[in-house]
């Protein structure tokens, strides 16, 4: 994870994955209570749903973040972690096609319940729900989702992705010249 100040009162955090402890690391970087946060989730391959709900708890309380739906029976709602103190900061999230799984879970909540603005490109569309391992006769393990994931508005994200509010792709020229259109757009929105 990397962090820096972009402008007066604007914190930038690049989070590569929702690994165990990621939410607390981000929250530690934000303890100075910035007025706005640019959370860069580009290339974030996902991770723990618990880390997603914990980090979302810094931006909203009492909200449904997603649903886990078994093959038979009712869908179970997942909620923000309301034990996390609210930051009161504006939020812009940078996404791309490398944002998958738990990253898409986070992005869908930001978009669907109006926690902030998404900038970049549509997410990967690779979120199936938490997996469970099944031991096979040859000693190998097969991981399959035990439930289906739906977004906070009960929408399907798997194979579709989460669309952005502002399209700002990273091009080869941007990479070669050190420009970042996502960060530039985020700063205009804040």
Strand content: 25-35%
CATH superfamily: 2-enoyl-CoA Hydratase, Chain A, domain 1
Shape: globular
CATH class: Alpha Beta
Uncertain spans, ≥5 residues at pLDDT below 50?
A: none
Task: Note the gap between the termini.
Answer: 22 Å
How many strand units?
A: 11
CATH architectural category = Alpha-Beta Complex
User: Please, what is the average pLDDT?
Assistant: 95
Output the strand order for the largest sheet.
Answer: 1-2-3-6-7-11
Structural class: alpha/beta
Helix content: 10-25%
Mind describing the biggest β-sheet? 6 strands, mixed
Query: What is the CATH topology?
Result: 2-enoyl-CoA Hydratase, Chain A, domain 1
Count of structural domains: 1
Provide a count of the helices. Answer: 5
Q: Give helix and strand order, one letter per element, not per position.
A: EEHEHEEEHEEEEEHH
Radius of gyration equals: 17 Å
């Amino acid at each position: 994870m990397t962090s820096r100040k972009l402008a007066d009162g604007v914190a930038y955090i690049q989070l590569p994955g929702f690994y165990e402890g990621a939410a607390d690391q981000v929250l530690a970087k934000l303890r100075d209570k910035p007025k706005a946060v640019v959370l860069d989730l580009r290339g974030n391959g996902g991770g723990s749903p618990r880390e997603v709900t914990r980090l979302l708890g810094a931006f909203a309380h009492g909200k449904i973040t997603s649903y886990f739906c078994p093959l038979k029976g009712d869908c179970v709602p997942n909620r923000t972690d309301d034990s996390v103190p609210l930051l009161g900061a504006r939020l812009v999230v940078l996404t791309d096609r490398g944002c998958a799984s738990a990253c898409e879970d986070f992005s869908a909540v930001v978009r669907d319940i109006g926690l902030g603005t998404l900038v970049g490109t549509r997410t990967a569309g690779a979120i199936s729900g938490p997996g469970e391992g099944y031991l096979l006769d040859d000693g190998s393990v097969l991981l399959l989702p035990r439930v289906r994931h739906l977004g906070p508005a009960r929408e399907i994200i798997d194979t579709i992705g989460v669309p952005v509010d502002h399209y700002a792709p990273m091009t080869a020229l941007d990479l070669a010249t050190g420009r970042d259109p996502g960060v530039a757009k985020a700063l205009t929105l804040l």
